[in-house]
Backbone:
């Protein structure tokens, strides 16, 4: 196991890094939530990744924010560029479209003070437009999206939209990857392979808006499915397993009924029915994409580029 020096001072400096691309209003909301937190960040670096207009006016409203530009496409390279500009002993990552809970950094600081704490993953909940009347996607994503507790326990990674670590760990594990892989999965699994344990911290909460359109959810699964398929091509055994998973995906919503009925992440019959409807729709779409890849579809057409939405949309399969 790697063991760089991770002893932190009693009150470490916390540097927050935020990748940004064409989300000025959401970035403003994110920065406002950080400014009003119980534990304010010592510094924030916003790494713009090719926006049509740099969010200079927004960042100027917050004296603790520094704005930089990173031209290499992808949130991973943007975060890497932001880290270079920071000086904190603790690095915290949040996405521009997220809202930090008032206790986000306070919970992170308290956990990092405990023995053996080196990498933390927090809870991500859906930010509702109208909490009294959820949309189908809000209900679905409340149960199935951003389950960092499960990602940590089952897959050894956590999302980079709510990630905290000692700087020494980042220096040891190395930078986030670019668009060729899912950078949060890649980094977390590299850290785990080096012997670091990722802790889930329920009180370290941020809120992420649900997708407004089903096409946005399709784009997400296009990208992830393409990444998953990379290790399948040319391997007979894995191809057979992929075919079996494709069939299972189409009928899997029925097996999820108990979870939907008992989840504490939504309430009410209406919201549970909406979540089930959303689940059926996205699982059938995923089964279709898996079959498309199985019969010769090009995964590169699915992966796209995170900050080139027009180009990505133009390469969607029919």
Residues:
């Amino acid at each position: 196991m790697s063991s760089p020096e991770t002893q932190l001072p009693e009150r470490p400096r916390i540097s927050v890094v935020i990748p940004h691309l064409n989300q000025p209003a959401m970035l403003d909301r994110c920065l406002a939530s950080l400014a009003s937190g119980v534990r304010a960040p010592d510094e924030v670096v916003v790494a713009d990744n090719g926006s049509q207009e740099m969010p200079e006016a927004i960042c100027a409203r917050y004296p603790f924010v520094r704005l930089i530009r990173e031209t290499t496409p992808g949130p991973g390279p943007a975060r890497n560029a932001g880290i270079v500009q920071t000086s904190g002993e603790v690095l915290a990552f949040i996405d521009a479209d997220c809202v930090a809970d008032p206790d986000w950094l306070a919970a992170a600081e308290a956990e990092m003070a405990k023995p053996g704490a080196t990498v933390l993953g927090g809870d991500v909940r859906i930010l509702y437009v109208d909490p009294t009347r959820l949309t189908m996607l809000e209900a679905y994503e409340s149960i199935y999206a951003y389950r960092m507790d499960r990602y940590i326990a089952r897959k050894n990674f956590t999302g980079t939209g709510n990630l905290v670590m000692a700087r020494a760990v980042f220096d040891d594990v190395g930078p986030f990857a670019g668009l060729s892989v899912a950078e949060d999965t890649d980094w977390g699994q590299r850290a785990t392979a080096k012997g670091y344990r990722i802790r889930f911290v329920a009180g370290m909460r941020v809120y992420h808006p649900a997708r407004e359109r089903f096409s946005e959810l399709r784009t997400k699964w296009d990208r992830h499915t393409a990444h998953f398929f990379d290790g399948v091509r040319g391997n007979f055994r894995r191809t057979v397993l992929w075919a079996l998973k494709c069939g299972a995906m189409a009928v899997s919503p029925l097996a999820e009924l108990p979870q939907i009925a008992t989840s504490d992440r939504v309430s009410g019959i209406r919201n549970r029915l909406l979540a089930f409807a959303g689940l059926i729709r996205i699982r059938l779409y995923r089964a279709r994409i898996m079959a498309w890849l199985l019969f010769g579809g090009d995964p590169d057409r699915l992966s796209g580029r995170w900050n080139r939405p027009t180009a990505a949309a133009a390469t969607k399969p029919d």
Observations:
- Strands lie at 14-20, 43-48, 65-69, 90-94, 99-100, 119-127, 162-166, 198-209.
- The chain has a mean pLDDT of 91.
- The chain has 14 helices and eight strands.
- The chain has two domains: 14-209, 214-314.
